[in-house]
Design goal:
- The chain has one domain.
- Helices cover 71% and strands 0% of the residues.
- It has six helices and no strands.
- Helix 1 runs antiparallel to helix 2, helix 2 packs parallel to helix 6 and helix 4 runs antiparallel to helix 6.
- The protein is elongated, with a radius of gyration of 20 Å.
Length: 171
């Protein structure tokens, strides 16, 4: 199961990479049309914004899996192991609560806005745009649920493959 989940996260990371590349292409295309051809594209800014939102949320799924979100590692590392574990369980429950809210209200928003269309891209349904909320919320909920099971079950998972992150993008 862990192997399947890891491959699925790899797919999400490739999807996020594709979204980033697509956003770069769209923005470069918009700049080219505006400054070289002197003919602005009406849709590129809106489309690039949607891509940025999707990239952010799918990147958050990857960051959640790798435990790269903001935390208090220095404070937590100084605690006794029993206290640390209890605090990590409480924190994971709080994160689960947020992700459940993201999933639930993202689902409601997706259904409510499903038939609306984008302003400059009338073929783009806003339900497609907002679908990233329940999808990423659900994926992060699964990640946190799995992490919580490991914490309660005694299998302690260290952040980011057992090593603290230096902040370098080359890791």
């Amino acid at each position: 199961m862990e192997r399947f989940f890891r491959r699925f996260i790899d797919f999400v990371e490739w999807w996020a990479t594709f979204l980033l590349l697509l956003m770069v292409v769209v923005v470069c295309l918009g700049v080219f049309f505006r400054y070289v051809l002197d003919a602005s594209l009406a849709w590129y800014d809106e489309f690039a914004s949607y891509l940025l939102v999707w990239l952010t949320f799918y990147g958050a799924v990857s960051a959640s899996y790798h435990r790269r979100h903001i935390g208090f590692e220095t404070f937590i590392a100084r605690l006794m192991p029993v206290t640390r574990k209890k605090l990590e369980i409480v924190a994971e429950f709080l994160v689960l609560g947020f992700q459940a809210v993201l999933l639930y209200y993202g689902w409601l928003l997706t259904h409510k806005m499903g038939d609306e269309t984008a302003i400059s891209l009338v073929w783009v349904r806003m339900g497609w745009v907002y679908s990233v909320l329940p999808i990423s919320g659900g994926l992060m909920l699964l990640i946190s649920g799995q992490r919580l099971l490991h914490l309660v079950g005694g299998k302690e998972q260290r952040k980011g493959a057992e090593a603290p992150w230096s902040g370098s993008s080359s890791e």
